[in-house]
Amino acid sequence: MKTEHIKYILTVANSKSINKASAKLCNYPAQKLSRIICAIEEELNCKIFSKNNKGISITEEGRFVLEKFQEIENILQELEMHKHLINNEELACKTSGKLNIYSLVSNKNTYSFHAIKNFAKDYPNIQIDYHITTHAEVIENVTNDPSSIGIALNYTLNKNAAYNDYENYPELISLPVFRNENVVLAGNNCTFLDKNQKSISLKTAVKYPFVVFSSGDDKYKNFFHHILSLFGTPQIKYYTENLDMFYSLIEQGNCLAIGCAEDKHFSSPHFDIRTINIIEQLCQTNILLINRDYLTSPICKLFVDYLFDSRTKWNLWNQHDIYLDYAGLEKPFDLF
């Protein structure tokens, strides 16, 4: 029995289907999984799984085997983590340089920003200059400098690109890092919505006036106008760069806004604001922008590898309670 077979068996048990486990294991052939299961059952002289109409189920003796397999897998992960930390500490002591990161203001609570802070701790000899700027300047700087990193935004509506201009820049690679669903924000005393309303369609919402927090960037104005135009004629009544003004206008009850569902501001006791689920799936995705020549910059490559390292993802997820789009996070490895 090979150590990786333990992971395969545990994945099959959690999936309750060999085909589903195959998909989770990067399309590892289902027939090979079946042969591995049979070989391990023969080696251990016990039946771990039994087939049924819905797929497979775990036998009584299989539960005991899986419990022991999970203990072994936990130990293997701890050993791998320990090895990873030792290697990182050795590398961090030897690595020095400078990294320019260009980001939008609104990204400071995301996975990317926490990863940057952790990277700075792990590599203290690397100077990180974090520039808060506009969407246009993020693109311009990363396009012109392969040693720079950009953090920007993309939007999808019902899983289709609703607003995406990165494909217009062949010098850039855009990598999805973090995804958050959007909601409609309304004051509890909103004059045109039911106080007990839990959800709303954008076709209905677009009939009412909106306020947009523009963050000094036309991209937000363009996005909200574009996305609302898909459902009617937008009534964008206010644009503001002042966050307190933004929430105050919503609280007054004469306009709505669109915001991220997990933004901690929305539960602030300072504002009488409620969130209403949007029926359409409107998602905001945190995008890492890198220059296609980024491999010419050792520091830039080091940061990209660090950001997409599975241990970094797991640690930050636990530390900051952030939802990660794992499907998106795996795709960049095909580009490197």
Structure description:
This protein has 336 residues and is α/β, with parallel strands linked by helices. The protein has two domains: 3-91, Winged helix-like DNA-binding domain superfamily/Winged helix DNA-binding domain (Arc Repressor Mutant, subunit A, Orthogonal Bundle); 98-336, D-Maltodextrin-Binding Protein, domain 2, CATH 3.40.190. The protein contains twelve helices and 13 strands. The protein has helices at residues 3-15, 18-24, 30-44, 60-94, 111-122, 135-144, 202-205, 218-229, 243-251, 298-307, 310-320, 326-330, and strands at residues 49-52, 55-58, 97-103, 126-132, 148-157, 160-163, 172-187, 199-200, 209-213, 235-240, 257-260, 273-278, 282-291. 26% of the residues are buried.
Give me some keywords for this one.
336 residues, alpha/beta, Arc Repressor Mutant, subunit A, D-Maltodextrin-Binding Protein, domain 2, 9-stranded mixed sheet, two-stranded antiparallel ribbon, 25% strand, disordered C terminus
Biggest sheet layout: 9 strands, mixed
Order of helices and strands: HHHEEHEHEHEEEEHEHEHEEEHHH
Could you name the CATH class of the largest domain?
Answer: Alpha Beta
Helix content: 40-55%
Uncertain residue ranges: 314-336
**Number of helical regions:** 12
Number of strands: 13
**CATH-scheme architecture of the largest domain:** 3-Layer(aba) Sandwich
End-to-end span in angstroms? 32 Å
This entry's quaternary arrangement is single chain
Q: What class do helices, strands and sheet pairing give?
A: alpha/beta
CATH topology of the largest domain: D-Maltodextrin-Binding Protein, domain 2
How many independent structural domains? 2
- Portion in strands: 25-35%
- Round the Cα radius of gyration to an integer and report it: 24 Å
Mean of pLDDT: 77
Task: Label the overall shape.
Answer: globular
